[in-house]
Amino acid sequence: MMDSIIKIENLIFEYRKEEEEQPVKAINNISLEVEKGSFTAILGKNGSGKSTLAKNLNGLLLPTGGTVYVNGYNTADEEHIWDVRQSAGMVFQNPDNQLVSAIVEDDVAFGPENLGIEPAEIRRRVDKALEDVNMGPFKGKSPHLLSGGQKQRIAIAGVVAMKPRCIIFDEPTAMLDPKGRKEIMSIIKELHEEGITVVLITHFMDEAVNADRVIIMHQGEIFMDGTPAEVFGQGEKVKSVNLDVPMAVELARALRQRGIEVPEKIIGTEEMVEYLCQYK
Amino acid sequence: MLRDITLGQYFPGSSPVHKLDPRLKIIATLLFIIELFIVDNFIGFLIAAIALGAVIALSKVPLSYILRGLKPILLILAFTFALNMFMVDGRILWQWKFLKITQEGLELAVFMAIRLILLIMGSSMLTLCTRPIALTDGIERLLSPFKRFGLPAHDIAMMMTIALRFIPTLLEEADKIMKAQQARGADFETGNLMQRAKSLIPILVPLFVSAFRIAQDLAMAMEARCYRGGENRTRMNEMKFKKSDYVAVTLLAVFGAVIIIQSKVF
Fold first, then answer.
1. Where are the domains of chain A?
2. Judged by CB atoms within 8 Å, which residues 126-165 of A form the interface with B?
3. pTM for this structure?
4. CATH 3.40.50.720 is right for the domain spanning A4-245
5. Are the beta carbons of B238 and A117 separated by less than 8 Å?
6. Which of A90, A116, B67, B196 is most buried, with most CB under 10 Å away?
């Protein structure tokens, strides 16, 4: 029996475009459980329903059919909606549009203030959260003077300060440069190591390599689900929905065709480099 | 051009002025503005200027930074100056056809210009030395007695916080749109006033669209962070009157007294 933090049962989400009579099914009957402390990556093309799924995970969108439980609370239960959102924090794509305050530390304090926490405790949490994302020295600065990656780190700190059990990252690196992307990924990894459940929505394959579990979505349904090695091992199937496999996987496949038996478990760039350097 | 606006911008620092209670600073600024409007001679302005100068010196905000904030209002300043100079009747100093400059007009023009400059500098000191959150918290607290009459004090304060936060973001957005339009041959620099005003429309429309998009994103992010209005909300920085605040109250009282005395004497 899996100890799950998020439990989705037959989730259906439809929205209606104004002129069209027929509602569009963004999510079509998904059932899914996310284990406590795990790191799940959800991949998919634009329009695959991955962002809609993310917004269903903390009650920003409510299911048309089926149920979503977060930390035991039903997201459709209005009484517990704030418990749901406190349990499952969310970091969005655009770093600019999710910061509320013109001062970094005030922004980080925004969430805890909403929860009605004691001022002294808020102060402690804000300092700790900024420390966690290596933004301590910037606490008195104004976010618009920071880089995209730094802003996104502030956004993460703002969620961390609410002490969620789980954080959902909705394409957090999509608008960042490579350096910012690296910074954010290493922070996500650290948070996961500290015991926070991570759900990472992304379309960068290389980011999914770090996860314990990869889910590929296609047309509102779960297309593939497994460990990164399992999923990326089926390169052709991944490509059939117009997604790429990580560079190292592609290279491994090419090497195998030339008769070099690269182990199946090698999917990350670093592991690949390691393997090739030791290859005789 | 768009980056010169200092009104509404915060200048980070840790001076005694920065540390004062925001409620006190708001009231002081209001008193300062009222003072500027009741003063009817140059000595009153001199006193106000000295007081303002002392505050600026104490705040350690560079004077050049504050003066830059005057740039956007230069046009208004020049306009009122010219209007006063030419329109007021009195002893004629200089005349050319229908244009004339009178002694009284010139005095009034200088008078008004000083008033405007002090007004802008004084009010920008409030935002320069007060963290936006503290400012809106202060406003919320000052307005809270009116909650009884149905005034949504918290919501007003939150709207102002967000407005202040997004001034730079929207300026950047406007800059980006302008550059994109220029790259496709739009011309904002030449033509008469009408033509230039018209050429701004293609900037304003996309700017509004992106403002709505930002608002939508932000609303979602705020909801995800459990924002549910002012009820049961706590604050990281509580407002308490400190020793320095009492000193400031005393100085403010002295300033007010001096102004009243001088208006009686002169």
1. 4-245
2. 126, 140-144, 155, 158-159, 162
3. 0.79
4. no
5. no
6. A90
